[in-house]
Amino acid sequence: MIDRNKLNQNFQYFDKETIIEIIDIFFSEYPERVEKIQKNIQEGDFTQLKFNAHSLKGVVANFQDPLTIELSRTLDEMAKNQQTTGLNKVFEDLKVACSNLLDELNALKAEVGAS
């Protein structure tokens, strides 16, 4: 769940259009990001998995969703340590958290656009 206070602090100097654009960029990039991470896991490519998980962590951090940040951080650490045990579970949990984040961002986008 997005921490609205932190999110507002993060975006306090941006106008509505910029906030919507940032959300739209995440929406457009998200499917490819998840696809790359899934491919990295399937291929056991821990170098690229670390890169892609770390990149996702940076992007979702903008939106101040602690669960999604933590799961992407965990995936990043697991890749760094080449840990396979529980990797698929963390990835599945991350996809669910990201799906919830996308829903929240859709609602936020509607709010910002309406104000």
Order of helices and strands: HHHHH
The coarse overall form would be: elongated
Largest sheet composition: none
Identify the CATH architecture.
Up-down Bundle
CATH superfamily: HPT domain
Structural class, by secondary structure, is mainly alpha
Oligomer: single chain
Parts with pLDDT < 50 across at least 5 consecutive residues: none
CATH top level class name: Mainly Alpha
Distance between the termini: 22 Å
Could you walk me through the main structural features you see in this protein, from its secondary elements to its overall organization?
The chain has helices spanning 4-10, 16-43, 46-61, 66-80, 87-114. It is mainly α and 115 residues long. The chain has one domain (4-114): HPT domain (Four Helix Bundle (Hemerythrin (Met), subunit A), Up-down Bundle), CATH 1.20.120.
Summarize the helices and strands and which ones pair or pack:
Elements: H1 4-10, H2 16-43, H3 46-61, H4 66-80, H5 87-114
TL;DR of this structure?
By secondary structure, the protein is mainly α.
